[in-house]
Structure prediction request, 351 residues.
Amino acid sequence: MSKRHLTLGIESSCDETAIAVLADGRELLSNVISSQIKIHEEYGGVVPEIASRHHLKNLPFVLDQALAEAGVNLDEIAEIGVTAGPGLAGALLMGTAFAKAAAMAAGKPLIGVHHIQGHILANLLEHPELEPPFLSLVISGGHTLLVEVLGYNEFKVLGTTRDDAVGEAYDKVARVIGLGYPGGPKIDRLAKEGDPHAIEFKRVYLEPGSLDFSFSGTKTGVINYLHSAEQRGEHPKAADVAASFQEAVLEVLVNKTMSALDTTGYSGVAMAGGVSSNSALREKMRAACEARGAKLWIPSPVFCTDNGAMIAMAAYKKAQLGIYSDLHLDVWPGLDLETGLHKLNAGYPAH
Ligand code: KG4
Ligand code: ZN
Prediction:
């Protein structure tokens, strides 16, 4: 038997079926990600019912591979972490049902994890020195948050989006430009060939001092711009549109993050979520942080988008705090990061 403390992390909240094995909260032994992008690409976005079916089919194989790559058995695992929300209800149900079955079969404790908590704690995979409290900017397909990380299982939301999440705006703009799904990485690539100042799209800052976000105006600006160009018989360069849209969005993200550093007094920020893998954003945020002597933590791209390693890390931290779930663990598609974490705890009644 291994003397190491092994944590299994299971993620299935959207379109990736992912399982990882983490040793002693430090060493990643495996991180298997089975992406459904190719399947959903055909439909131009994630189809929830199809996502659930693929999770159901893939989970046993992904687990086998994660254990095999780590060279361990389920018996040797200390605890099983699983995303219990937020996310697509059916997709979450597949992961939690599977995790419960594994926990019951192997007699292991179960730990429900908040998906965003996982994204934030992904930073610890490469930066174990990062300790709460710290500031985090969470930017994914479903979330745009400035968060104070008060503890590994305690968060205070400083700002959130009032309409679209950043990743959602990227995906919608990519669709109107004709790039297809998933839009973020495609805009990232195309923008490198375009002029970011070709078109001045709207930057929305809301009320002075607000750390909330709004991206639907910028997105609609792109759609309207393309419609009127079409009516005039013009064909703007897609790369210029992509670069200009991205410039508008990233400027707001960077400036709001700097304002959050000003108001909270934290010495640095940890980025999290799929959009954190954006190459232009990584450069801009680095430059802005360097200019003011602030620290910046950004996970490697593979740990920014959905993965099992981040869930394993969060489960490991919860285990250290003695916070476990039980087999009544429910799924919570809209689970709140600041006020909802107790719903995952053992003893909380199921729906
Ligand atoms: O964190 P994530 O994998 O899943 C959610 O929890 O939502 O984030 C997915 C989002 C998608 O909207 C995707 O288009 C966006 O992250 N994304 C990017 C990049 N890579 C992924 N957005 C901009 N630039 C990228 N390189
Ligand atoms: Zn995610």
Summary: Residues 253 and 280 are 12 Å apart (CA to CA). The chain has twelve helices and ten strands.
